[in-house]
Amino acid sequence: MAGFRLLPRLNAENRFFWTSGSDGQLRFLQCEACETFVHPPRPICPNCQSEAVSPATVPGTGVIDTYTINHQKWQPMLEVPYVIARVAIDGAPGVYLTTNIIDCPVEAVDIGDAVKVAFEQHDDVWLPLFEKA
Ligand SMILES: [Zn+2]
């Protein structure tokens, strides 16, 4: 899907996440002490307060937990309609990613659909978008 996208501002905590797609792999922070996944990225595990959190690779698949179809043309270059979905990430219990479902008609998207990551690169950012698996 071409068009306008808001890009995240990179910092020391989130840089690994937004550049993870450079090798095609999706990663989330995981606590080395209790294995809790930590997203959005932050330097301390919310479960056990350990500071030993580091990026872990996940399979890159997931399931649509909920979604909405946006028809509003927020920006002139925005192509509508498009799907905003919350994806439950496989291999990372408790992690949900709010993202777009691309490369299929909006009416083909449903809750429970299996999806896989499809990175879209903008400069030094790889947005983790998803397509139907
Ligand atoms: Zn922990």
Walk me through the structure.
By secondary structure, this protein is mainly beta. Helices cover 4% and strands 42% of the residues. The protein contains 1 helix and 8 strands; from the N terminus they run αββββββββ. The radius of gyration is 15 Å and the shape is globular. It starts with 14 loop residues before the first helix and ends with a strand. The structure holds zinc ion. Residues 31, 33-34, 36, 45, 47-48, 50 line the site of zinc ion. The site of zinc ion has 8 residues, from loops.
Present the secondary structure layout:
Blueprint: H1 15-19, E1 26-31, E2 37-38, E3 53-58, E4 61-70, E5 82-89, E6 96-102, E7 114-122, E8 125-132
The structure holds zinc ion (ZN).
> What sort of overall outline do the alpha carbons produce when their principal axes are compared?
globular
Structural category is: mainly beta
* Fraction of residues in helix: under 10%
Number-wise, the strands total 8
